Amino acid sequence: HAGDGNLHPLILFDANDADQLHRCELFGAEILETSVRMGGTVTGEHGVGRLKKPWLAGYLGPEAMELNRRIKTALDPAGILNPGAAI
Q: Tens of pLDDT along 2-51?
C-alpha cells in the first residue's frame, strides 16, 4: 500500500542489543511520521494494533478517536475482541 502511505515496514535488528532496539523504535516512528506528513496514513485495512497505537490519536484527532472508542465499546462491551489493540 505504499501509494496511500499504509506501509508495513520490516526493520531487522538484534533484540538482545538495547541500543539497536532503541534505534529501531526511533526509525519506526520516523517512518510513520513521514508517511502522515506526506499525506499517507498509519492505519491499514485491518485497523491499528499495538505497534502503531501511539501514533493513531495524532493522526485521527480526539473526535475520531472518541467515536472509534464508542463503536468498539458498543460492539465489544466486555473488551474481549482483540484485547490491547487500539481499535
A: 556 566 778 999 999 999 999 999 998 898 888 888 888 777 666 676 77
Whole-number Å distance between alpha carbons of 52 and 17: 22
The three cell numbers locating residue 25: 523504535
Q: Which three cell numbers stand for residue 59?
A: 493522526
14 by Cβ neighbours in 10 Å (0-12 / 13-18 / 19+) ranks as exposed
pLDDT tens for 49-84 read: 677 888 888 888 899 989 988 998 999 999 898 887
- Predicted TM-score (pTM) of the model is 0.66
| Contact of 42 with 77, CB cutoff 8 Å | no
CA dist 67 and 65 (Å) reads 5
Q: Cα(21)–Cα(16) distance, rounded to whole angstroms?
A: 8
